[in-house]
Design brief:
Layout: H1 2-14, E1 18-20, E2 26-27, H2 33-46, E3 47-53, E4 64-74, E5 79-89, E6 91-92, H3 110-116, E7 124-129, E8 147-151, E9 157-160, E10 164-183, E11 186-195
Antiparallel strand pairs: 1-10, 2-6, 3-7, 4-5, 4-10, 7-10, 8-9, 10-11
């Protein structure tokens, strides 16, 4: 019965009875030019990016859900975190504070998010992040003992506002899709899949600091 329901849900989604990212938040149409320019400036000036392997899949871009593996260290080599993570980037009304999944990348880690942007699935990248893009909600002169969340919201994995070296392996870049429909007078609101057939591809003519 469950399989039949899932098949029906997917069929309905395919004919248009769905919308991206569900009722909690919605995708923006495009990245505003002034925001893009600021992100590209930060990416160029505050990140050192080294592509260790170029992927051949869809690209981590604005309005995408990104799943990845990361290893985070301080400049002196001290390990902060190693493991899976994901981020939902480029959505209005995203309930950052309401997400409790322990692998969700904290929204104020802009350096990691910008470092992911432009990677293709299957790629591996090392980024060195200036402290200005770490814990971006903390002031520049914050006490050296201050920390913020790296991933999750249980304060399990935290990081200081210090320069970081992060290695990233991108596993998935897609648009989260949620089904919302009435089936036999019963309201349905469920995750269906993460769509990647219309995601951009890597453009080798663009500079590495370009924001997709």
């Amino acid at each position: 019965m469950l399989k039949l329901f899932l098949v029906l849900a997917i069929a309905l989604a395919q004919v248009g009875c769905y919308y991206e990212a569900g009722d909690r938040y919605k995708a923006t149409d495009e990245l505003p030019i002034e925001v893009r320019e600021r992100f590209e400036r930060d990416k160029r000036d505050l990140l050192k990016i080294e592509d260790l392997k170029i992927g051949d899949g869809s690209v981590a871009a604005w309005n995408r859900q990104l799943s990845f593996h990361m290893e985070v260290r301080y400049i002196d080599g001290t390990l902060v975190y190693r493991g899976p993570a994901y981020a939902i980037v480029g959505f209005y009304g995203m309930p950052e504070g309401g997400i409790t999944d322990n692998s969700h990348l904290f929204s104020q880690q802009r350096g990691i998010r910008l470092g992911l942007n432009g990677m293709a699935v299957g790629g591996r990248r090392r980024i060195t992040i200036d402290r200005k893009l770490v814990c971006t909600h903390l002031p520049e002169d914050v006490d050296f003992r201050a920390k913020c969340n790296l991933i999750g919201y249980a304060y399990r994995h935290t990081v200081k506002k210090e320069n970081l070296v992060v290695e990233l392996t991108l596993k998935e870049a897609c648009v989260p899709v949620k089904l919302e429909a009435n089936i036999w007078y019963i309201g349905v609101n469920m995750d269906v899949w993460c769509r990647n057939e219309d995601t951009p591809r890597l453009d080798p003519t663009l500079p590495i600091w370009h924001v997709y």
